Amino acid sequence: MTTKDLHFYEPKNGHGLKHDPFNAIIAPRPIGWISSRDGSGNVNLAPYSFFNAFCYVPPIIGFSSTNWKDSAGNIQDTGEFVWNLATMDLAKQMNATAAHVARDVDEFKIAGLTAAPCKLVNVPRVAESPVAFECKLTQILQLQGKDGEKAQAWVTFGEVVAVHIDKAFIKDGVYQTGLAHPIVRAGRKGDYFEIKPENMFEMIRPD
Questions:
Q1: CA torsion angle for 30, 201, 55, 75 (degrees, to 10)?
Q2: Is residue 84 part of a domain?
Q3: What's the pTM value of the predicted model, to 2 decimals?
Q4: Domain holding 117: CATH number?
Q5: Which portions of this protein are annotated as coiled-coil regions (predicted)?
Q6: 85-129 pLDDT, tens per residue?
Q7: Per the domain annotation, does 33 fall within a domain?
Q8: Phi and psi, residue 22, nearest 5°
Q9: What's the 3-state SS for 4-48?
Q10: Does the structure show a pLDDT above 70 at 188?
């Protein structure tokens, strides 16, 4: 085995590079494009770069926000949210919803998106998105370090109670991930890439 010339660092002492490599290494990361509504009825739509699925039964997804954001506050108040799939043809609109605006400003309008009603939650989904998950809050956890000190980051978990899928992306009963051309976060802020069907491959598990 060839010995590698490794860059080693302990995060507590800094990384010693031009950009923090943590986000670039944990890639790709699905985009948590989260719509929510506060107790007064104001709608919020925002993308989160720390997002994923965590459980099959019940189906649970979650996103993490650095500092306490409107999304987490809204979901804590109402117990509901929607995840919307960000795709290549919605990239600019998704990016527009990342703007820091007042709580009563509707990001759907800023991005020129259509707020479509959901079935089981009182939160709109992005009508232009091919997939949406209606979710009910299960937990909001403040993260902490190994020393027990609280971090300024909160993970919001929700159970998926309803799913909307554009039938154009279902072939022979199977949802085709690549056909939707989802976009994912790469490394530095602003870096994204597109998942294309031709870049996907299959491997059979040993068991």
A1: 20
A2: yes
A3: 0.93
A4: 2.30.110.10
A5: none
A6: 999 999 999 999 999 888 888 999 999 999 999 999 999 999 999
A7: yes
A8: -55, -55
A9: CCCCCCCHHHCCCCCCCCHHHHCCCEECEEEEEECCCCCEEEEEE
A10: no
